[in-house]
Amino acid sequence: MRLVVLGGGESGVGTAILGKKKGYDVFVSDFGKIKANYKEVLIINGIAWEEGTHTEDLILNADVVMKSPGIPEKKSPIVKKLLKKGIPVISEIEFAIPFTKAITIAITGSNGKTTTTMLTYHLLKSAGLNVGLGGNIGKSFAWQVADDKFDSYVLELSSFQLDGIKHYKPHIAIITNISPDHLDRYDYKYEKYIDSKFRITMNQTEEDFLIYDADDEAIAEWLKNNKTKAQLIPFSLTKTFEMGAFIKNKSMEVNIINEEEFTMETETMALEGKHNMKNAMAATSVAKLMKIRNTTIRESLSNFQGVEHRLEKVLKIQNVQYINDSKATNVNATFFALDSMNTPTVWIVGGVDKGNDYNELMSLVREKVKAIICLGVDNRKIIDVFGNVVDMMVEVNSMEDAVKMAQRLAEKGDTVLLSPACASFDLFENYEDRGNQFKKAVKHL
User: Fold this and answer.
1) Pick from 6, 99, 352, 425: most CB atoms within 10 A?
2) From CA 173, how far away is CA 283, in angstroms rounded?
């Protein structure tokens, strides 16, 4: 069997290693450059590879192709040719899952999926479970399956990874929320993106579970018009359920069939903000399904450290709090960030716009934002929408300038918030680079 891997990054190299271990004839092809450390791994394992090109003769003879999630199938000529020939093009998760007996917990959503994934992993690991972490985070899932050490995995899955599954079914699936994102990959049709997220539950059976945000319109609409066999576990900030998770009298309650009810005062949790209450309800629902004791869950919820670049408190300087929310790459994520601000805010925003509608933020900007610093190559849309709403609006083209300007505009008791609502590729390598540059600039003030 010939396995061709398109993309020589973490998921590609992990898949190649698993394929080789399982007896496949493996070839890795990357149209860009493969990082030196990954090349070394491929060479040590005797895996053939190429970079800077896709040699058709070495690719179109594949029995199966694993495509890295970053390659858009509609735009990639080689993927189009593979599909035309009827060669299966699948994701890393789909390729790896037959080679493990481990239980998987899969988490998707437009926002909150990283925090929910990390919190779920933290809850299970703290309880002593032999659990791995993969998908969009950390070490490749396929690579971990090749080493085969874990009884269960918590996987963060993007819509791109879900597009490449055919038979994969998680025992527990979570959809944190759905808001317009990556629409350029879905013909600018929101319905297609929503359907893509719900692929997470398409193979689930009556023995499996789907945990979801019952306050989310797109999710509610899909569930009204479509069926899943999975047992449904909703969570909500406003509704209560016989089976599900909810907030009542400043307390989080989680009721799962045949399990002792879980309650915890929300103010004793490490995470702050309404969106984090939702992330906590989703993660706690998993912990209850995995039969973890209430005392262990409470302890883990109160000592969780949060996720880097997501509402990360950097420093307080002259009584001004600097917050790094570089992971907010869409309007919905920035909405949550602004919503959790309790002081006058100097907001650093901008980057590569993915078709954003900034009007959704209007009421929050009016209420909370005193100044806007635009950090992007093209800030026209932001200026058009908010130009008359805030007292001060400035354009800068480096993170250092943005932070220095923010320091000038902020007064004692204010917050400086980096929450860009955009992708980072105009001025930075990725959102991590953007967040790290912000932290560095703040530390140099």
Assistant:
1) 6
2) 11
CATH number at residue 228: 3.40.1190.10
What is the mean predicted confidence (pLDDT) over 202-222?
A: 95
Number of domains observed in the structure of the chain: 3
Number of CB atoms found within 10 A of residue 37's CB: 8
pLDDT band of residue 41 (cuts 50, 70, 90) is very high
pLDDT for 274 equals 84
Tokens of 257: 């069939």
Distance separating alpha carbons of residues 227 and 380, to the nearest angstrom = 43
What pLDDT is attached to residue 181?
67
CATH number for the domain including 393?
3.90.190.20
Q: Are residues 373 and 316 in the same domain?
A: yes
Q: Is 398 annotated as a binding residue?
A: no
Please check whether residues 110 and 204 belong to one and the same domain.
yes
Is the pLDDT assigned to residue 171 strictly greater than 90?
yes
244 marked ligand binding residue: no
Q: Binding residue per annotation — 112? A: yes
Is 268 annotated to bind ligand? Answer: no
Is residue 55 part of an annotated ligand binding site?
Answer: no
Q: Mean per-residue pLDDT for 263-290?
A: 92
Evaluate if pTM is beyond 0.70. Answer: yes
The range of the structural domain enclosing residue 414 comes to: 312-443
110 marked as part of a ligand binding site: yes
Position 402 scores a pLDDT of 96
pLDDT digits (tens, 9 = 90+) for 42-82: 999 999 999 999 999 999 999 999 999 888 877 789 999 99
263 is in an annotated binding site: no
Domain termination residue (choose one: 303, 325, 341): 303
